[in-house]
Amino acid sequence: MTADPAGTDSRTSTPSGVIRVASVPAGHVYVRHIRPADGRDGVRLLVDPRPNGAPSTSQRWWPPVMLDPAWIEAHHDEFDVFHVHFGFDAQSADDLRKLVETLRRHGKPLVQTVHDLRNPHHPDPALHDAALDVLVPAADRLITLTPGAAAEIERRWGRTARVIPHPHVVEEPELSRPRPPHEGFVVGVHAKSIRPNMRPLPVIRALTRLLPELPGMRLRVDLHTETADPEAYAYAPEAVAGLRALADDGLIDLHVHDYFDDAELWDYLRSLDVSVLPYAFGTHSGWLEACHDLGTAVVVSDCGYYADQRPCHTFRMRDAGPDEASLTAAVRAAYEQRPAVRAAPAERAAERRAVAAAHRAVYEDVLR
Q: Which residues form the Glycosyltransferase subfamily 4-like N-terminal domain (predicted)?
């Protein structure tokens, strides 16, 4: 079998010098971009096994089949290194202990990239903390994305994590495409499906009070259709009603729609001067990276390590909502510092090559 465009391979034998990695997952954009664009890093990722019930044409990788110890028992001779990124949201601590025990029994080293020190999908951190309390001490090598996250890992577990930055999210030719001109100062809040770490309504209400003060400011709010569907898991009637009331008052331009595909998302981000991320907790952000790729300023709460990740403007977030003074100061700073810093495509390409080399070095090191 030949490697697919993402550089994945399910062969049971590989040429000398090629490191076979069981990556959890393999098909995610972050994982694809920690490989070089030409795929010539001597690393082969096993393809994501299809979860039960997923159609044969599906690219879905969750829930990750590779986290099942039975899968490792059946496929341990097909990989050299087991690398966990994310996807273990539903795994209990006991499940993960069995995973680690199975890897140890077969002599397979474990690498973990700590993307989330606080899971943005879990209102209660206990489940994710318990998972990290298994994986972080057990990993043979740890990677994370920012110095702040590495320092927290050192404090909590006494482990050293290698800091390797998040690679670009947007690909060419979109990465180099010029931003289209538009009038005014467009501030966007994409509430998505209002996951547990989001506080969109109080953030948006605070932003509406800036409208008379910043000439040309327009406030665009996006929301996924499922938040207005009583049959959907993401149904959020109070938030939807509050946003529709603001739209009826002419304070926001509200867009309710299905998930954007990549092209639609890049067009949306390019249409904004600022993307405000209403996060109450979290650690790192691929959305922030996409904004950096496209030249859209980011205003984000000071939780997690977003400010370590890429240039952004921060505000303080409290349990009930934002500290309004710091939020408005952050948006004003973005207003005054236009245009936003945009990633240079050549620098992003060089960074991706360096990121790939760093991962190859970690795999070589752990296999010694």
A: 30-166
- Taking domain 174-336, whether its CATH number is 3.40.50.2000 is answered by yes
Q: Indicate the average pLDDT of the chain.
A: 93
Q: Where are the beta strands (DSSP E) in the chain?
A: 19-24, 43-45, 81-84, 110-114, 141-144, 161-163, 185-190, 217-224, 253-257, 274-277, 297-301, 313-315
For residue 185, list its beta bridge partners.
Answer: 217
Chain segment 170-206, per-residue pLDDT in tens: 999 999 999 999 999 999 999 999 999 999 999 999 9
Omega of the bond prior to 63 within 30 degrees of 0, cis? yes
- Of 189, 183, 192, 324, nearest to 253 by C-alpha is 189
Task: Give the total residue count for the chain.
Answer: 368
Q: Which helix or strand (DSSP H or E) is residue 75 part of?
A: helix 69-75
The amino acid sitting at 253 is: D
Per-domain boundaries in the chain:
19-168+349-367, 174-336
CATH number of 19-168+349-367: 3.40.50.2000
User: How far is residue 27 CA from its own chain's centroid?
Assistant: 13
CA–CA separation, 138 and 330 (whole Å): 40
In angstroms, rounded to a whole number, what is the distance separating the alpha carbons of residues 309 and 303?
12
